[in-house]
Amino acid sequence: MPCSSSSRFSSSRTSPDILSVDLHLHSNASDGTDPPAVVVRKAVAISLSAIALTDHDTLSGIPEASAAARDLPIELIPGVELSVDHGGVKIHMLAYFIDPEPGPLQDRLEILRAGRDIRNRRIVDRLNDLGYPVTMEDVLRHAAGDAIGRPHIADALVSGGAVADRSEAFRELLGDGGPAYVERDRLTATKAIGLAIESGGVTSIAHPLTIDPGDATLRSLFEDLRDVGLAGIEAYYSEYAPAIRTQLAEVAADLGLVATGGSDCHGSGKPGLEIGTGHGDLVVPDSALEELRVRKP
Ligand code: AMP
Ligand code: FE
Ligand code: FE
Ligand code: ZN
Protein backbone atom coordinates (compact mmCIF):
# COMPACT_ATOMS: atom_id res chain seq x y z
CA MET A 1 0.00 0.00 0.00
CA PRO A 2 1.25 3.52 -0.65
CA CYS A 3 2.04 5.58 2.38
CA SER A 4 -0.48 8.26 3.27
CA SER A 5 0.73 11.74 2.47
CA SER A 6 -1.64 13.48 4.86
CA SER A 7 1.12 14.72 7.16
CA ARG A 8 3.46 16.09 4.51
CA PHE A 9 0.40 17.44 2.78
CA SER A 10 -0.76 19.67 5.57
CA SER A 11 1.74 22.43 4.93
CA SER A 12 1.99 24.93 2.07
CA ARG A 13 1.92 23.76 -1.57
CA THR A 14 5.13 25.66 -2.21
CA SER A 15 7.17 23.19 -0.16
CA PRO A 16 9.28 21.15 -2.60
CA ASP A 17 8.42 17.79 -1.02
CA ILE A 18 4.69 18.25 -1.60
CA LEU A 19 3.49 16.65 -4.78
CA SER A 20 0.10 17.55 -6.10
CA VAL A 21 -1.85 16.29 -9.06
CA ASP A 22 -5.00 17.10 -11.04
CA LEU A 23 -7.11 14.11 -11.99
CA HIS A 24 -9.94 15.89 -13.81
CA LEU A 25 -9.09 17.97 -16.88
CA HIS A 26 -10.67 18.67 -20.24
CA SER A 27 -9.03 19.64 -23.52
CA ASN A 28 -10.43 20.64 -26.88
CA ALA A 29 -10.72 16.94 -27.69
CA SER A 30 -14.08 17.44 -25.94
CA ASP A 31 -15.39 20.68 -24.43
CA GLY A 32 -12.24 22.24 -23.01
CA THR A 33 -10.66 25.07 -24.97
CA ASP A 34 -6.91 24.26 -24.71
CA PRO A 35 -5.25 21.65 -26.92
CA PRO A 36 -4.03 18.59 -24.97
CA ALA A 37 -0.35 19.62 -25.20
CA VAL A 38 -1.18 23.05 -23.75
CA VAL A 39 -2.98 21.41 -20.82
CA VAL A 40 0.17 19.39 -20.14
CA ARG A 41 2.47 22.42 -20.37
CA LYS A 42 0.26 24.47 -18.04
CA ALA A 43 0.35 21.62 -15.51
CA VAL A 44 4.16 21.46 -15.73
CA ALA A 45 4.36 25.23 -15.25
CA ILE A 46 2.73 24.88 -11.82
CA SER A 47 4.81 21.79 -10.95
CA LEU A 48 2.07 19.18 -10.79
CA SER A 49 3.61 15.70 -10.63
CA ALA A 50 0.81 14.07 -12.62
CA ILE A 51 -2.42 14.89 -14.43
CA ALA A 52 -5.24 12.86 -15.89
CA LEU A 53 -6.79 14.06 -19.11
CA THR A 54 -10.48 13.15 -18.73
CA ASP A 55 -12.31 14.40 -21.79
CA HIS A 56 -15.98 13.49 -22.18
CA ASP A 57 -16.50 10.20 -24.08
CA THR A 58 -13.18 10.36 -25.94
CA LEU A 59 -9.53 9.35 -25.64
CA SER A 60 -8.58 11.22 -28.80
CA GLY A 61 -6.60 13.86 -26.87
CA ILE A 62 -4.43 11.28 -25.12
CA PRO A 63 -1.77 10.68 -27.81
CA GLU A 64 -0.98 14.42 -28.06
CA ALA A 65 -0.95 14.80 -24.27
CA SER A 66 1.28 11.73 -23.81
CA ALA A 67 3.69 12.97 -26.44
CA ALA A 68 3.87 16.39 -24.76
CA ALA A 69 4.45 14.80 -21.35
CA ARG A 70 7.16 12.42 -22.57
CA ASP A 71 10.10 14.81 -22.15
CA LEU A 72 8.65 16.80 -19.28
CA PRO A 73 8.66 16.13 -15.51
CA ILE A 74 5.04 15.04 -15.36
CA GLU A 75 3.09 11.81 -15.63
CA LEU A 76 0.06 11.72 -17.93
CA ILE A 77 -2.73 9.35 -16.89
CA PRO A 78 -5.08 8.47 -19.75
CA GLY A 79 -8.67 8.95 -18.64
CA VAL A 80 -12.20 9.72 -19.74
CA GLU A 81 -15.38 11.15 -18.17
CA LEU A 82 -18.66 9.33 -18.77
CA SER A 83 -22.28 10.34 -18.12
CA VAL A 84 -23.97 7.32 -16.57
CA ASP A 85 -27.27 6.31 -15.03
CA HIS A 86 -27.93 4.43 -11.80
CA GLY A 87 -31.62 3.62 -11.41
CA GLY A 88 -32.65 6.96 -12.91
CA VAL A 89 -29.98 8.93 -11.03
CA LYS A 90 -27.49 10.77 -13.27
CA ILE A 91 -23.82 10.46 -12.36
CA HIS A 92 -20.57 11.56 -14.00
CA MET A 93 -17.95 8.85 -13.78
CA LEU A 94 -14.21 9.28 -14.28
CA ALA A 95 -12.27 6.28 -15.60
CA TYR A 96 -8.47 6.17 -15.32
CA PHE A 97 -5.68 4.14 -16.93
CA ILE A 98 -7.71 3.67 -20.11
CA ASP A 99 -5.19 3.45 -22.94
CA PRO A 100 -6.20 4.87 -26.34
CA GLU A 101 -6.36 1.52 -28.10
CA PRO A 102 -9.12 -0.98 -28.85
CA GLY A 103 -10.71 -2.39 -25.70
CA PRO A 104 -14.04 -2.96 -23.94
CA LEU A 105 -14.59 0.59 -22.66
CA GLN A 106 -12.70 2.19 -25.53
CA ASP A 107 -14.93 0.53 -28.13
CA ARG A 108 -18.05 1.65 -26.28
CA LEU A 109 -16.92 5.28 -26.44
CA GLU A 110 -17.48 5.25 -30.20
CA ILE A 111 -21.11 4.27 -29.68
CA LEU A 112 -21.52 7.00 -27.05
CA ARG A 113 -20.13 9.61 -29.44
CA ALA A 114 -22.52 8.45 -32.16
CA GLY A 115 -25.34 8.97 -29.63
CA ARG A 116 -24.04 12.49 -29.03
CA ASP A 117 -24.25 13.28 -32.74
CA ILE A 118 -27.89 12.19 -32.91
CA ARG A 119 -28.71 14.19 -29.80
CA ASN A 120 -26.85 17.31 -31.03
CA ARG A 121 -28.97 17.32 -34.20
CA ARG A 122 -32.14 17.00 -32.15
CA ILE A 123 -31.06 19.90 -29.94
CA VAL A 124 -30.33 22.05 -33.00
CA ASP A 125 -33.78 21.14 -34.43
CA ARG A 126 -35.38 22.15 -31.16
CA LEU A 127 -33.46 25.44 -31.11
CA ASN A 128 -34.63 26.14 -34.66
CA ASP A 129 -38.23 25.46 -33.57
CA LEU A 130 -37.68 27.95 -30.73
CA GLY A 131 -36.53 30.55 -33.26
CA TYR A 132 -32.74 30.31 -32.92
CA PRO A 133 -31.25 29.98 -36.44
CA VAL A 134 -28.26 27.84 -35.44
CA THR A 135 -26.99 25.02 -37.70
CA MET A 136 -24.86 21.91 -37.13
CA GLU A 137 -22.18 23.59 -39.26
CA ASP A 138 -22.10 26.50 -36.78
CA VAL A 139 -21.73 24.01 -33.94
CA LEU A 140 -18.94 22.04 -35.63
CA ARG A 141 -16.96 25.25 -36.18
CA HIS A 142 -16.62 25.46 -32.39
CA ALA A 143 -15.40 21.89 -31.94
CA ALA A 144 -11.83 20.72 -32.46
CA GLY A 145 -12.29 17.12 -31.40
CA ASP A 146 -14.64 14.19 -31.81
CA ALA A 147 -16.75 14.49 -28.64
CA ILE A 148 -19.20 17.26 -29.46
CA GLY A 149 -21.93 18.38 -27.12
CA ARG A 150 -23.96 21.09 -25.52
CA PRO A 151 -20.97 23.37 -24.75
CA HIS A 152 -20.23 23.60 -28.50
CA ILE A 153 -23.89 24.31 -29.22
CA ALA A 154 -23.66 26.98 -26.52
CA ASP A 155 -20.60 28.47 -28.24
CA ALA A 156 -22.53 28.62 -31.53
CA LEU A 157 -25.37 30.44 -29.76
CA VAL A 158 -22.85 32.90 -28.27
CA SER A 159 -21.32 33.53 -31.72
CA GLY A 160 -24.77 34.18 -33.14
CA GLY A 161 -25.42 36.73 -30.41
CA ALA A 162 -28.33 34.80 -28.89
CA VAL A 163 -26.70 34.55 -25.45
CA ALA A 164 -23.74 36.18 -23.72
CA ASP A 165 -21.81 33.05 -22.67
CA ARG A 166 -21.96 29.28 -22.16
CA SER A 167 -23.52 29.73 -18.73
CA GLU A 168 -26.42 31.76 -20.10
CA ALA A 169 -26.94 29.20 -22.87
CA PHE A 170 -27.23 26.43 -20.28
CA ARG A 171 -29.37 28.49 -17.95
CA GLU A 172 -31.84 29.64 -20.61
CA LEU A 173 -31.90 26.79 -23.12
CA LEU A 174 -29.62 23.77 -22.88
CA GLY A 175 -29.52 22.85 -19.20
CA ASP A 176 -31.26 19.72 -17.90
CA GLY A 177 -35.00 20.27 -18.25
CA GLY A 178 -34.48 23.45 -20.29
CA PRO A 179 -36.54 24.21 -23.43
CA ALA A 180 -33.88 22.80 -25.78
CA TYR A 181 -32.78 19.93 -23.54
CA VAL A 182 -32.72 16.48 -25.13
CA GLU A 183 -31.90 13.25 -23.30
CA ARG A 184 -29.22 10.90 -24.57
CA ASP A 185 -28.31 7.27 -24.10
CA ARG A 186 -26.15 6.58 -21.08
CA LEU A 187 -24.34 3.52 -19.84
CA THR A 188 -25.47 2.28 -16.47
CA ALA A 189 -22.97 3.05 -13.72
CA THR A 190 -22.49 -0.67 -13.11
CA LYS A 191 -21.76 -1.29 -16.79
CA ALA A 192 -19.31 1.62 -16.97
CA ILE A 193 -17.44 0.40 -13.89
CA GLY A 194 -17.29 -3.13 -15.33
CA LEU A 195 -16.09 -1.99 -18.75
CA ALA A 196 -13.40 0.19 -17.15
CA ILE A 197 -12.16 -2.77 -15.11
CA GLU A 198 -12.17 -5.01 -18.21
CA SER A 199 -10.04 -2.33 -19.90
CA GLY A 200 -7.52 -2.39 -17.04
CA GLY A 201 -8.79 0.82 -15.46
CA VAL A 202 -10.38 2.16 -12.29
CA THR A 203 -13.30 4.54 -11.74
CA SER A 204 -14.19 7.43 -9.46
CA ILE A 205 -17.46 9.37 -9.16
CA ALA A 206 -16.93 12.93 -10.45
CA HIS A 207 -18.22 15.95 -8.48
CA PRO A 208 -20.38 13.69 -6.27
CA LEU A 209 -22.39 16.54 -4.74
CA THR A 210 -24.04 17.31 -8.09
CA ILE A 211 -25.82 13.94 -7.82
CA ASP A 212 -29.48 14.04 -6.84
CA PRO A 213 -29.90 10.61 -5.24
CA GLY A 214 -33.70 10.92 -5.03
CA ASP A 215 -35.10 8.66 -2.32
CA ALA A 216 -31.70 7.07 -1.69
CA THR A 217 -28.75 8.65 0.10
CA LEU A 218 -25.45 9.54 -1.51
CA ARG A 219 -23.73 7.22 0.94
CA SER A 220 -25.89 4.24 -0.08
CA LEU A 221 -25.26 5.06 -3.74
CA PHE A 222 -21.49 5.11 -3.11
CA GLU A 223 -21.81 1.76 -1.29
CA ASP A 224 -23.86 0.19 -4.12
CA LEU A 225 -21.24 1.21 -6.66
CA ARG A 226 -18.29 0.27 -4.44
CA ASP A 227 -19.80 -3.20 -4.27
CA VAL A 228 -19.65 -3.49 -8.07
CA GLY A 229 -16.07 -2.25 -8.30
CA LEU A 230 -16.04 1.55 -7.95
CA ALA A 231 -12.60 2.69 -6.71
CA GLY A 232 -13.13 6.27 -5.58
CA ILE A 233 -15.11 9.46 -5.20
CA GLU A 234 -13.91 12.92 -6.18
CA ALA A 235 -13.55 14.55 -2.76
CA TYR A 236 -11.01 17.25 -3.66
CA TYR A 237 -13.15 19.08 -6.21
CA SER A 238 -12.52 22.69 -7.16
CA GLU A 239 -16.09 23.84 -6.56
CA TYR A 240 -16.29 22.45 -3.03
CA ALA A 241 -15.27 24.36 0.08
CA PRO A 242 -12.21 22.95 1.87
CA ALA A 243 -14.35 21.66 4.76
CA ILE A 244 -16.61 19.79 2.31
CA ARG A 245 -13.57 18.24 0.61
CA THR A 246 -12.38 17.00 3.99
CA GLN A 247 -15.80 15.58 4.81
CA LEU A 248 -15.99 13.78 1.48
CA ALA A 249 -12.49 12.39 1.98
CA GLU A 250 -13.62 11.06 5.36
CA VAL A 251 -16.68 9.44 3.78
CA ALA A 252 -14.43 7.86 1.16
CA ALA A 253 -12.06 6.49 3.80
CA ASP A 254 -15.00 5.21 5.81
CA LEU A 255 -16.34 3.30 2.81
CA GLY A 256 -12.98 1.96 1.69
CA LEU A 257 -12.91 4.23 -1.34
CA VAL A 258 -10.10 6.45 -2.61
CA ALA A 259 -10.56 10.22 -2.19
CA THR A 260 -9.64 11.47 -5.67
CA GLY A 261 -9.62 15.04 -6.92
CA GLY A 262 -9.31 17.49 -9.72
CA SER A 263 -10.14 20.95 -10.98
CA ASP A 264 -12.49 20.06 -13.90
CA CYS A 265 -10.70 22.83 -15.77
CA HIS A 266 -12.17 23.46 -19.24
CA GLY A 267 -9.79 26.31 -20.18
CA SER A 268 -11.82 29.41 -20.98
CA GLY A 269 -14.95 27.18 -21.20
CA LYS A 270 -15.33 27.56 -17.42
CA PRO A 271 -13.74 30.93 -16.63
CA GLY A 272 -11.92 31.22 -13.32
CA LEU A 273 -11.17 27.51 -12.97
CA GLU A 274 -7.43 26.87 -13.28
CA ILE A 275 -5.51 23.66 -13.78
CA GLY A 276 -4.33 22.23 -10.47
CA THR A 277 -5.57 25.01 -8.22
CA GLY A 278 -9.20 25.41 -9.30
CA HIS A 279 -10.39 28.69 -7.82
CA GLY A 280 -7.01 29.05 -6.08
CA ASP A 281 -7.43 26.84 -3.05
CA LEU A 282 -7.41 23.33 -4.51
CA VAL A 283 -4.63 20.89 -3.70
CA VAL A 284 -4.99 17.24 -4.69
CA PRO A 285 -2.40 15.05 -2.95
CA ASP A 286 -0.45 12.69 -5.17
CA SER A 287 -1.40 9.93 -2.73
CA ALA A 288 -4.82 9.96 -4.44
CA LEU A 289 -3.18 8.79 -7.64
CA GLU A 290 -0.99 6.24 -5.87
CA GLU A 291 -4.03 4.79 -4.10
CA LEU A 292 -5.87 4.53 -7.42
CA ARG A 293 -2.87 2.88 -9.02
CA VAL A 294 -2.82 0.02 -6.53
CA ARG A 295 -6.49 -0.66 -7.33
CA LYS A 296 -5.81 -1.26 -10.99
CA PRO A 297 -7.09 -4.72 -11.90
P1 AMP B 1 -23.03 17.32 -22.70
O1 AMP B 1 -21.81 16.49 -22.43
O2 AMP B 1 -23.22 17.61 -24.14
O3 AMP B 1 -24.27 16.75 -22.05
O4 AMP B 1 -22.75 18.72 -21.97
C1 AMP B 1 -22.47 18.74 -20.61
C2 AMP B 1 -21.20 19.54 -20.33
O5 AMP B 1 -21.51 20.90 -20.43
C3 AMP B 1 -20.68 19.37 -18.92
O6 AMP B 1 -19.77 18.34 -18.83
C4 AMP B 1 -20.01 20.68 -18.64
O7 AMP B 1 -18.67 20.64 -19.05
C5 AMP B 1 -20.74 21.65 -19.53
N1 AMP B 1 -21.64 22.52 -18.76
C6 AMP B 1 -22.71 22.15 -18.05
N2 AMP B 1 -23.30 23.21 -17.49
C7 AMP B 1 -22.57 24.29 -17.86
C8 AMP B 1 -22.66 25.69 -17.61
N3 AMP B 1 -23.65 26.20 -16.87
N4 AMP B 1 -21.71 26.49 -18.16
C9 AMP B 1 -20.73 25.99 -18.92
N5 AMP B 1 -20.60 24.68 -19.20
C10 AMP B 1 -21.50 23.84 -18.67
FE1 FE C 1 -17.45 19.37 -19.73
FE1 FE D 1 -18.70 16.31 -15.14
ZN1 ZN E 1 -15.47 17.17 -16.21
Question: Explain this structure to me?
Answer:
- By secondary structure, the protein is α/β, with parallel strands linked by helices.
- It has two domains: 21-101 and 188-293, Metal-dependent hydrolases (TIM Barrel); 111-174, DNA polymerase, domain 1 (Orthogonal Bundle).
- It has ten helices and nine strands.
- The protein has helices at 36-45, 62-70, 104-129, 136-141, 150-159, 166-174, 189-198, 218-226, 242-254, 286-293; strands at residues 20-25, 50-53, 75-86, 89-96, 187-188, 202-205, 232-237, 258-262, 284-285.
- Helix 1 packs parallel to helix 2 (62-70) and helix 5 (150-159) packs across helix 6.
- It starts with 19 loop residues before the first strand and ends with a helix.
- The model is unreliable at 1-15 (pLDDT under 50).
- Bound molecules: adenosine monophosphate, fe (iii) ion (FE) (2 copies) and zinc ion.
- Adenosine monophosphate binds next to helix 5 and helix 6.
Taken together, the total number of domains comes to 2
How many beta strands in the DSSP annotation? 9
CATH class of the largest domain: Alpha Beta
CATH architecture identity of the largest domain: Alpha-Beta Barrel
| Name of the CATH superfamily of the largest domain | Metal-dependent hydrolases
Structural class: alpha/beta
- What fold name goes in the CATH topology slot of the largest domain? TIM Barrel
- Broad shape: globular
- Rg computed from alpha carbons, rounded to a whole number of angstroms: 19 Å
The number of distinct helices, counting runs of at least 4 residues, comes to 10
Q: Tell me about the largest β-sheet.
A: 9 strands, mixed
